[in-house]
Amino acid sequence: MDPNDKRSPDIIALFDVNGTLTAPRLSATKEMIDFLAKLGEKFMIGIAGGSDLLKQKEQFGGNVSDMSHYNFSDNGLVAYRGKKLLAEASLTAHLGEKHFQKLINYCLGYTSALSIPVKSGTFMEFRKGI
Fold first, then answer.
1. How many helices (H) and strands (E) does the chain have?
2. Distances (CA, A) of 29 to 25, 26, 99, 117, 128
3. Pairing state of beta strands 12-16 and 78-81?
4. 32: phi then psi, degrees, rounded to nearest 5
5. Which residues are annotated as a binding site?
6. Is 16 a catalytic residue?
7. Per-residue DSSP letter, 29
8. What angle do CA 88, 91, 93 make, to 5 degrees?
9. In terms of Cα–Cα distance, which of 3, 13, 84 is closest to 42?
10. Which residue among the candidates 5, 10, 16, 52 is catalytic per the annotation?
């Protein structure tokens, strides 16, 4: 630990992205970015979300890695400390391609049989965990 670092070593403020730091899939406000910067002077900041890091960068103007000390994207399956990758896992690697394809086919089949008012949109987006 850097002896000049005045942040509390015992506290990490961990925030969810969509619905907490931003409205779902929208950009963070200047006020929120300023708040995180000020809070980051006193505490370690962590940002977590279901989206991949690229989507989080879109929401925070590309500097999400600069404003947070830790980042957990893809539902926590990809972890960074600053810009350094700490750990990464994926459902495909865990299940294997054959079982993963079987799961996807089941999910798509199940979704296609649902009776809902309007059936449009993104039903499945490939991520490390989905």
1. 5, 5
2. 12, 9, 41, 33, 28
3. unpaired
4. -70, -40
5. 16, 25, 127
6. yes
7. P
8. 75
9. 13
10. 16
pLDDT at 1: 55
Which of 15, 129, 4 has the alpha carbon at shortest distance from 69?
Answer: 15
- Residues making up the annotated binding site for alpha-D-mannose 1-phosphate are 25, 127
pLDDT along the chain (130 residues), means of 10: 72 91 89 91 91 88 82 92 92 90 89 79 69
Q: Are 56 and 24 in contact (CB under 8 A)?
A: no
Domains of the chain: 12-88 (3.40.50.1000), 90-130 (no CATH)
| 53 within 8 A of 71, measured Cβ to Cβ | yes
pLDDT of residue 88: 93
Res 98: pLDDT: 95
Q: Annotated binding residues for Mg(2+), as ranges?
A: 16
Which are the contacts of 76, defined by CB distance < 8 A and separation ≥ 6?
48, 129
Residue 28 burial (10 A CB sphere; 0-12, 13-18, 19+): buried
Task: Provide the greatest CA pair distance for the chain.
Answer: 60
